[in-house]
Structures are given as C-alpha cells and as structure tokens.
Specification:
The structure holds 2 protein chains of 2 kinds.
Chain A (H helix, E strand, L loop, with lengths): L1 H16 L13 H21 L4 H7 L2 H14 L6 H31 L3 H28 L5 H7 L2 H15 L1 H23 L6 H25 L4
Chain B lengths: L2 H26 L4 E2 L1 H12 L26 E2 L2 H18 L6 H12 L5 H4 L4 H15 L4 H10 L5
Antiparallel strand pairs in B: 1-2
Helix pairs in contact in B: 2-3, 3-4
Classes of the chains: A mainly alpha, B mainly alpha.
C-alpha cells in the first residue's frame, strides 16, 4: 500500500516541482487553484455519471464525503511548505473553494442537461450547496492548513475527514456490504494519501490521530442528520 | 510543460467539455412544454381553422379537470391535437350514422378522410398509429365502416 501511495505522491510531486519530493515541499501557490478547478469539474461530472448508474456506484455518485475528501487532500497538498499560517489558509481555502465550486457546478449542470429540467429547477437543487460551499471552503481550508502543524492541533485537523466520512460509511454499510465497500475504498485511499503526505512533513502522534478520528467520527454520526436537514436536496 | 497538467487539461476536455457539449446540444433540442393557458390558446387557434359537423360545439377548454393541475405542463401541439381529434370525432359520428341520408354521410366521409392533412395526423401520431389510421380511413373510403364505427364508439362517444 505504502509503495503505491508513494508512487502517486512522487508523480504529483514531480509534476509540480520537477524533482522527487523532499521532506517539506514549497507551497504550490494560487496557480494550483486552476488545477483544482479542473479536477473539481472532472470529478463532478464523474460523480453525476455514477449517480445515474445502477447499483452501488449510484450511492458513490450520490455520496458527499469521498468528493469532499478529494478536495481536502488537494488543499493539504497545496498548502505544504507555506511560510505563514495565514498564507497556508489562503492557499488551502482558495484550493478547496475552486474545487468545490467546480464540482458543484459541473455536477448540477450535467444533471440539468441530462434530465432536461429547467434552469430554475436545476438552480433550486444547486443553490443550497453553493451557499454552503462558501463557509465549508473556509473551514476545510483552515483545517487543511493547520494539519501541517506539529502537535495535537495538527493531528486533530488531520483526523477531521473522519468527521464527515464515518457517518456516510456507516449509513452505506447499513444498506448493504457492496454499497459500503464501494464507498469505503475511495475514502480509505484518499485518507491514506493524506496521512502519507503529512507524514513526510512531520511526525504523527498516532494515538492522538486515532483517538481524535474516533471522537470526530462519533460526533459526525451524531450531527449527520442535523447537517442533512439543512440542505433539502441532500 | 508539466506532464500532469497536460493530462489534467486533456482529461477535462474528454470528461467535462465533450459530454457537456453533447448534452447541451441535446438539451437545446428538448421538447417545449406549455402551460395550461398556452395549450388552451393553441387549441382555440386550431379550432378556429376547423368546421365541426352540424350539432357539435367546441368545448371551451380541452383540459380535463384535475385536482392538482396547477403544475401540469403539456407538450407543444397537444392543444392542436385535441382540436383536430374533436373535429374528427364530430364528422366520424355522422359518417357511421346510418339514419342520415347518403349525401350527408358522404359529405361527412370526405371530412373524415381529410384527417390526413391535419396536425393530429402529420405531427401527433407515431408511425405505427399512422398505419392504423390509414387502414381505417381506406376501409371507410371503400365502404367498410366497421373499424371507423368501432373507433368512434370507443374513443369519441361522450356517453361511454
């Protein structure tokens, strides 16, 4: 697993630095926002196609956490090596916002075009998500930026994806095992990449990460119905 | 140039731009749907071009009363189809009425046969349905009214 993760990591690293990754990479900067936008649009279209596919893939397309995790991974990647926390937050939040908005627009636009629904109906579906994406970008960007920090706070932020992933995973596993596995695999890969990326920068408090992951996961499960009730089209 | 960025842009074109363009073109050709008041206007415009058989009058509206009809939309041409269909029924009723004099039935038959020039026939029917109508009208022109009579009884009679 580690070797695969390492290869992907090296490929990403080479593409942006022209060399094999070193312990602390320079932050990729705002130019990465365009790439995040493209990645978001691509994944949004893929999610919508999966949403229309039969079986367990439909649940993957309709899920939220794997796609949010992809954006979070990008924002952690983008803010590596930023000299100040402020810059790290700016780069991270910009990255995740570019990703999320591109994802949401392409996902809903494709839905509207494929289902031949009116622009107004499509907008009704997308609007709550577009509104929620703004604070979500700021929060995710900040959490991603702080995850580079040594110590408990950094470990807490690194474990944050469990808060929004565990509720959906448990929900999917309740549906049936295939749906659960289809959701668990991409989430596990993305979280493994994330941990691997951060591990190269700083030592991890394994117990702290595990404990906070569990705590945040349980909190996420408790708050999941509340979050869903805020967005009618969720 | 960085390899990954090239792959990313190519993927964007393949996965986002091409499918979106395809579905956007398809979207632009999607059927137009009309509001109830638009479909009534369409029905009345078509009705104004048609002369009903003696004793028949146009209903004010072709829309059936429905409990939650406010959000119902209609396909373009639905109002025209309703007007043509009602007109056809009016003349079919006389064509199959054996109590009428022969010249009145002949005049009614000529009207019935002209259905093939109406919107209902040219635009409203599928190929399979057209074949059915063509056969029914040809039989009627040849003096065999059984199919037309059966059609009238099943589809046109207000009291059935």
């Amino acid at each position: 697993m580690n070797s695969i993760v390492g290869k992907i990591r090296k490929l990403i690293g080479k593409s942006y630095t022209g060399a094999a990754p070193v312990a602390v990479q320079p932050a990729v900067g705002v130019g990465f926002w365009v790439d995040s936008f493209l990645i978001g649009a691509i994944l949004g279209v893929i999610a919508q196609f999966l949403r229309q596919a039969p079986g367990a893939l439909m649940d993957l397309g309709a899920s939220t956490s794997p796609w949010v995790n992809a954006g979070f991974l990008l924002s952690v990647f983008a803010s590596r090596g930023a000299h100040t926390l402020r810059k790290a937050i700016l780069v991270s939040a910009g990255t995740v916002a570019a990703y999320l908005y591109a994802w949401l627009v392409s996902y809903h636009l494709l839905f509207m075009l494929r289902e031949s629904i009116s622009l107004a109906a499509g907008w009704r579906e997308a609007a709550p998500w577009l509104v929620a994406a703004l604070p979500a970008s700021l929060v995710l960007g900040t959490v991603a930026a702080v995850s580079h920090k040594h110590g408990l706070l950094g470990d807490l932020c690194l474990a944050a994806p469990f808060a929004w992933s565990l509720p959906e995973v448990t929900q999917a596993l309740k549906t049936d095992w295939l749906t659960g596995v289809t959701l668990v695999i991409p989430i596990a890969v993305l979280i493994a990449l994330l941990i691997h990326m951060v591990k190269e920068e700083r030592p991890l408090g394994k117990v702290a990460v595990l404990a906070t992951a569990l705590t945040l996961g349980i909190m996420g499960i408790a708050l999941y119905p509340v979050a869903r009730s805020l967005i009618p089209s969720w | 140039m960085r390899r990954l960025r090239c792959i990313l842009v190519a993927s964007f074109v393949l996965i986002v731009v091409i499918p979106m363009s395809y579905f956007a073109v398809r979207y632009s050709r999607r059927p137009t749907f009309l509001l109830p008041e638009q479909v009534v206007a369409e029905y009345r415009a078509e009705a104004a071009l048609l002369v009903l058989a003696p004793g028949w009058e146009w209903p004010v509206s072709p829309l059936a009363p429905v409990p939650d009809g406010t959000s119902i939309m209609y396909e373009e041409g639905w109002g025209k189809n309703q007007a043509d269909f009602y007109w056809f029924c009016s003349w079919a009723s006389r064509t199959v009425d054996l109590q009428l004099p022969a010249d009145a039935r002949q005049q009614a038959l000529e009207n019935v046969l002209s259905l093939q020039s109406k919107y209902f026939f040219t635009n409203g029917l599928s190929a399979d349905s057209k074949a059915f109508y063509v056969r029914m009208l040809r039989n009627a022109a040849d003096g065999d009214m059984d199919e037309l009579r059966g059609y009238y009884e099943l589809n046109c009679r207000q009291d059935t």
